Amino acid sequence: MVSELKALVRRNLLNMPGWRTRRRILVIESDDWGSVRMASREAYNYFLKSGFPVDKDPYNRYDSLESNDDLEMLFAILASVRDKNGNPAALTANSLVANPDYRMIEADGFRHYHYEYFTETLNRYPNHHRVMDLYREGISNKLIRPQFHGREHLNIPLWMDALGRKDKVVHEAFRFGMHSVHAEENPVYFNEYTDALACHTPDQLELLPAVLTDGVEIFEKIWGFLPVSFMAPCFIWNTQLEKPLADAGIRYLQGMVNQFQPVFGQPYRYNLRYHYLGQKTKVGQRYLVRNVFFEPSHFPDADNVGTSLKRIAVAFAWGKPAIISSHRLNYMGTLDPANRDRGLKQLSRLLTAVVKKWPDVEFMTSDQLGDLISTGKSNQ
After folding, report:
1. Predicted confidence band of residue 133 (pLDDT cuts 50, 70, 90)
2. Are strands 322-325 and 270-274 parallel, antiparallel or unpaired?
3. How far apart are alpha carbons 155 and 200 in whole angstroms?
4. Any idea what the Cα angle at residue 67 is, between residues 61 and 73, rounded to 5°?
5. 340 Cβ partners below 8 Å, 6+ apart?
6. What is the rounded CA–CA span in Å between residue 274 and residue 13?
7. Which residues contact 202 (CB under 8 A, 6 or more apart)?
8. In this predicted model, what pLDDT tens digit does every residue of 171-212 receive, in sequence order?
9. What separation in angstroms does the CA of 260 have from each of 91, 155, 195, 291?
10. pTM higher than 0.90 for the full model?
């Protein structure tokens, strides 16, 4: 009872400050699309048999490059419900546009970093030949809207340093075309090189604006339009990066209530910076703050649908859009089809319950919500 009361208080506090609207708006923000986490079932079985606790981390256990089947089945669920305006549920797919080029890095003696577009990565995977066509169909049918999650989901300086030091675990993962693998149950460095913007020295920070600008340019080449919102990998970024992001056309910054700002000279240490919905950055961008968390792969035995509905109700009661965080791994089935089936079944239950409980709900993507907030029309 006490824990439930504390949870209710936290949900209300999260939704008190910031932009408000009378409209019931629901946004689903989903991270990690286009990146490789666990390369294959073969890789998973190898590392599990070798004593790595990959089964203890949901990303290593379930997350993989999206396949034809993954997108087809997800789109069917999103299309199965409609809002008051006749629009289907829509997923904001925060996209990584590149992955390491392992062959080039090895050929270069692990001295320099090389990358490939994620569309090239798709070509090397079975059951992925229709992914880009499916994406285009999904975009056309208003089921999915890619936005920017970075060039890679990878801390390049730290990873290349580990390769250069011949770190055994990193090289083992490298053999399978992966940049990390869950090597310890309680690692000190729990982000496993996925914290792309975690710069802990001025020199590391100096490298990142060019990486982000390059990533936005690649995004436009792949998707045919420029992104206007950005989700920092692992919720970690230095505030100084907001200016180059703004210069590249990013108007909205997705995230949680807290930003993790790296502390110079102290690896793995962060200062927390508080944000609220609609708050402006120093260069005029708007923060979009997630207030619902729907992650069945993290909590397979929990009442994910019921908890999310409670959070949505609190958001709507405070005149806030419900911004749902729901990572890609919840809907991936290459490694474990049961994971995809579970995630999609629960997503279907959630969306069906939402349109039944709130028939005036409106489905939006992050860029649409950001544009609405930036107009200042909070009471429409």
Report:
1. very high
2. unpaired
3. 11
4. 95
5. 69, 70, 73, 331, 332, 333
6. 13
7. 264
8. 999 999 999 899 888 888 989 999 999 999 999 999 999 999
9. 25, 15, 11, 17
10. yes
